[in-house]
Design brief:
The chain is mainly beta and 141 residues long. It contains one helix and eight strands; from the N terminus they run H-E-E-E-E-E-E-E-E.
Length: 141
């Protein structure tokens, strides 16, 4: 009935319909999770910070809603695609509408030291680590 690709696409369609009907999952994915959604993300880390990049061209910068509560980063927004009146589609792959992504964060993130910027369709959320968790050199006397 389904080829390998067709089955995967069908499962993704069902997941999108479930998320549209019931909202996103009530639990947050860890920053190392392999789950996907819109917008796609890259998460990187250094000794000083965790950087999360959301690839979402066409999102109005004022529609971003970013929050941290109980070590969970929540990023929501909306992308609107202008449709020509009376037009129909043979195929539509570009996502439009509201979205939300949530990620559980490491315990050493300082929720007071977070900043975000949006440029060229990429939202960059920079989360600083607590000073007490950063490596430091200890001098021996």
């Amino acid at each position: 009935m389904f080829g390998t690709t067709g089955l995967f696409e069908e499962l993704q369609r069902i997941q999108r319909e479930m998320e549209n009907a019931f909202g996103s999952a009530p639990w947050a994915n860890g920053i190392r999770s392999s789950s996907t959604g819109f917008p796609p993300v890259n998460v990187g880390t250094t000794a000083d910070e965790v950087d999360v990049y959301f690839f979402a061209p066409g999102v109005n910068p004022e529609s971003w809603d970013i929050s941290i509560q109980n070590n969970v980063l929540s990023v929501a927004g909306e992308r609107r695609v202008i449709r020509e009146e009376g037009a129909s589609y043979y195929r539509k792959e570009r996502f439009d509408g509201e979205f939300r992504r949530t990620f559980s964060l490491p315990d050493d993130i300082d929720a007071e030291k977070v900043d975000a910027s949006y440029k060229d369709g990429v939202l960059h959320v920079r989360l600083q680590r607590k000073e007490s968790s950063k490596p430091r050199q200890i001098k021996v006397n």
